[in-house]
Amino acid sequence: MTLRLHVDGPRWRRHLRRVADARPGLVPVAKGNGYGFTVANLARRAAWLGSDLVAVGTYAEAVEVGRRFDGDILVLEPWRPFRAVTPSRRLVHTVSRPADLADLTAAAEDAPRVVLEGLTSMRRHGMPVGELRAALGAARGVRVEGVALHLPLGDGHVDEIDAWIDQVPHDRWFVSHATESELAALRARRPEVSIRPRVGTDLWLGDRGALAARAVVTDVHPVERGDRVGYRQRRVRGSGHLLVVSGGTAHGIGLEAPTPAATTRQRAVSLAKGGLDATGRALSPFVVAGKQRWFVEPPHMQISMVFLPAGTPPPAIGDEVDVRVRFTTTLFDEVLIS
Ligand SMILES: *Cc1c(COP(=O)(O)O)cnc(C)c1O
After folding, report:
1. CA-based nearest residue to 213, from 105, 65, 329, 89
2. Looking at ligand 1, which atom is closest to the CA of residue 35?
3. How far apart (Å, rounded) are the C-alpha atoms in residues 64 and 43?
4. CA 201 – ligand 1 centroid, Å
5. CB atoms < 10 A from the CB of 230, how many?
6. What is the pLDDT, as a whole number, of residue 276?
7. Which of 55, 126, 148, 210 has its CA 20 to 30 A from that of 160?
8. Which among 19, 176, 195 is the best mutation to test ligand 1's pocket, defined by most ligand atoms within 8 Å of the CB?
9. pTM summary value
């Protein structure tokens, strides 16, 4: 029972190179489920790209990446005093509070490497401008590798980043979610400053055509309208076939992240794509003969049961079907890179 991510290797690698060339100083981000590829795969790929620095989400991921990548590792979660960290010269800590800077310096044997994070319009972590300036000025016994800004999605990055550079005297910056043209605009405005983009989604998932999620069909049964099936013994709504396909809750199937839809129309679309119909049936992400098919009941741990109406020839056991999933919420059993 296998849910697979198929990667057109040559096409994907071409895309990675193109993004790295277009965004000088690129810091690949390898975190979470590794954007579907696993963090281990991304660590090796960053080495292949020739990166000197990889960003990870957590200290646990830093250990995982460190085994497969020789360069430096920037940890995106801010350091906190309750965090037990094995010292390493390859680690670059993110510090988002003045008190943490003092505590980290006191706890470390030799000067820890840090980036200081600014509190942007995102309001996740970081110090406001005045606090960050003071922390930079007072920093002793640490090696400041740069200032980090985590920005919201969308436009307006150039002005926000530029305002920070204006107010905080430092020549090395790390930013996220700035597009190629925004980065170019910033470089033109601030040629004396190094601005390194941290990129995950646009890098790993930027060429969707190189990626295909597919599930193996593990069983096929003819059914008649009214037959009871599954854990919940629901009646099927018509004649046709019951397909058992790989991919269940353990893979994140049927567990959609909350929709970012902001307008009523977007919400309606997202409901129609992933949601329930009026009678409580849920549309599955499994595509058979060009259409997403209905679940006959909620997904199981590792497989799902879906209904294929009469008139559509069923796939054979062992065939693969396409799955429409978000890569950042899916755990694949296998990642096959050609
Ligand atoms: C995840 C993350 C990134 C990368 O975000 P993408 O949208 O995947 O490019 C950059 N910076 C920080 C702080 C992050 O947490």
Report:
1. 329
2. 8
3. 8
4. 8
5. 14
6. 58
7. 55
8. 176
9. 0.93
Atom of ligand 1 nearest to the CA of 57: 15
Token pair 């599954």 is found at 230
What pLDDT does residue 260 have?
A: 73
DSSP 295: B
Q: Which residues contact 212 (CB under 8 A, 6 or more apart)?
A: 5, 6, 322
Of 7, 331, 20, 54, give the one whose Cα is nearest residue 203: 20
Contact 220, 314 (CB under 8 A): yes
Structure token digits, residue 71: 């360069």
Residue 255 is predicted with a pLDDT of 82
Q: Which residue, judged by its Cα, is nearest atom 14 of ligand 1?
A: 76
71: left (phi over 0), alpha (psi -120 to 50) or beta: beta
As a whole number of angstroms, the distance between CA 26 and CA 53 comes to 9
- Å from CA of 318 to ligand 1 middle: 37
From the CA of 76, give the closest atom in ligand 1: 13
CA-nearest residue for atom 7, ligand 1, is 201
Cβ-Cβ contacts under 8 Å for 238 (sequence gap 6 or more): 225, 307, 309, 310
Q: Compute the distance between CA of residue 256 and CA of residue 301 in angstroms, rounded to an integer.
A: 15
Ligand 1: residues whose CB is within 6 Å? Answer: 29, 31, 76, 150, 176-177, 198-202
**From the first residue on, what is the mean pLDDT of each consecutive set of 10 residues in the chain (338 residues)?**
95 98 97 98 98 97 97 98 88 97 90 96 96 95 97 89 95 95 95 97 98 98 97 94 97 82 69 59 94 95 97 98 96 97
Q: Which residue's CA is the nearest one to ligand 1's atom 5?
A: 200
CA of 151 to the centre of ligand 1 (A): 9
Give the Cα separation of 82 and 100 in Å (integer).
Answer: 10
Tell me the CA–centroid distance for residue 328 and ligand 1, in Å.
12
The structure tokens 């057109």 sit at: 8
Mutate to test the pocket of ligand 1, among 74, 117, 150 (most ligand atoms within 8 A of CB): 150
By 3-state DSSP, what share of the chain in percent is helix, strand and coil, each rounded to 5?
Answer: 30, 30, 40
